[in-house]
C-alpha cells in the first residue's frame, strides 16, 4: 500500500488498489459483489485482524476478483487505526 496523507485528529479515505485482469475477453471493472476485511490497531501497542485478500473475497462470496482497494481510517492519531481491504468481483 502506498504512503497515505493522514490527519492528526481524523482520517477517512479510500486509496486505489489495483484492477485484477480477468483473462482475455473477460469482463473488466468492478464486479457485482463486494467483500471487506479489516485490521485494527490501538496506540501502536496492539493490532489485530485479518485484512487479507482471501478474507475479503470469502466475506463477499467472491471467487473471481476484479478490483482491490484500501480504506484507511484513524481517529485521534495515534490512538486508533483501521485498514479495510475492499474487494469486488463475481
Q: What report would you give on this structure?
A:
- Helix content is 9%, strand content 50%.
- The chain has 90 residues and is mostly beta strands.
- The chain has one domain.
- A hairpin with a 4-residue loop joins strand 4 and strand 5.
Provide the descriptors you would attach to this structure in a database record.
single chain, 90 residues, mainly beta, 5-stranded antiparallel beta sheet, 50% strand, elongated
Short description:
The chain is mainly beta and 90 residues long. Helix content is 9%, strand content 50%.
Which regions have little confidence, pLDDT < 50, spanning 5+ residues?
Answer: none
Tally of strands: 5
Q: What is the C-alpha radius of gyration, as a whole number of Å?
A: 15 Å
Compressed to H and E, one letter per element, the order equals EEEHEE
What is the strand and helix layout of this fold?
Blueprint: E1 10-19, E2 33-42, E3 46-49, H1 53-60, E4 65-75, E5 80-89
Antiparallel strand pairs: 1-4, 2-3, 2-5, 4-5
